[in-house]
From TrEMBL:
Transmembrane segments: 9-28, 34-52
Protein name: Histidine kinase
Keyword Transmembrane: yes
Domain of life of the organism encoding this protein: Bacteria
Organism classification: Bacteria, Bacillati, Actinomycetota, Actinomycetes, Kitasatosporales
Keywords, in A-Z order: Membrane, Transmembrane, Transmembrane helix
Organism name: Streptomyces katrae
Length: 60
């Protein structure tokens, strides 16, 4: 049961990563080049943390 929740949390982190990369890819080239890598990484971490937090609550 614990590994199932861990896999779901990892899946949500991966989904957050892909969503952020997709959003960055849609931005114009000038904006993409102006964005520091730390901003993209921070967005991935925040979305991943939110996903893990939601997964750790368990079913309602």
């Amino acid at each position: 049961m614990n590994t199932d929740r861990l896999l779901r949390a990892a899946g949500r982190c991966a989904l957050a990563f892909l969503l952020v990369l997709g959003a960055v890819a849609l931005l114009p080239r000038a904006v993409r080049e102006a964005l520091p890598d730390a901003v993209v990484g921070g967005a991935v971490l925040v979305l991943g943390a939110v996903g893990v937090r939601r997964a750790s609550r368990g079913p309602r």
